[in-house]
Known about the structure:
single chain, alpha/beta, Rossmann fold, 7-stranded mixed β-sheet, 5 helices, 7 strands, globular, binds guanosine-5'-diphosphate, cell division, Probable GTP-binding protein EngB
Amino acid sequence: MIIKSAEFLCSNTQVSKLPTPVLPEYAFIGRSNVGKSSLINMLVDKKGLAKTSQTPGKTQLINHFKVNDKWFIVDLPGYGFARVSKSSKEKWEKFIRAYLTKRENLQCVMVLIDSRLTPQKVDLDFINWLGDQGLPFVLIFTKADKQSKGKTAQNVELFKNEMLKQWEEVPQLFITSSEDGSGRDEVLQFVDEINSG
Ligand code: GDP
């Protein structure tokens, strides 16, 4: 896919105020600091589109971006930040769950996983919840440039094994780096196939 345009559309704090669901949409989510903003900017080749290093746990916004006038990228607030209070965590869950379960044009949830880490409970819990809801999702491993290919492969394998304890198969997965652009073509091709399917 060639990216011709990518623009910020709107920020929302309420599911009821989301943009009209006229285009297919892909939601990006993961732990705070997983590299979500960097990945979105890398995919659309536009530095600064999604704001990096936001203060976690502050305003929880759903940000919409329009790509090629054909599809939406949705930047969801990160989860699993240790310093977030219980009430803030509950608010996050309610908000995100409402969005994910009600959004009719949502094609796929892109779950970001830090490729440097061994499987984390917070990610597995979220994935299991997606599965319980029957929501389609893929895994995007981030920051692959930070360690050797062997180490990344090892963590991916551990994650797969962890998933196979609960699931019969693992979803499609991508290994990416916002630093060197790896995985970009694969993720965009995946979106392209769904959009044109
Ligand atoms: P977010 O909180 O999930 O949106 O994460 P950010 O995109 O703000 O990234 C968090 C930190 O990780 C920043 O310092 C980024 O520069 C860094 N980072 C994100 N992606 C990558 C990557 O692919 N490679 C490397 N080396 N650093 C990354």
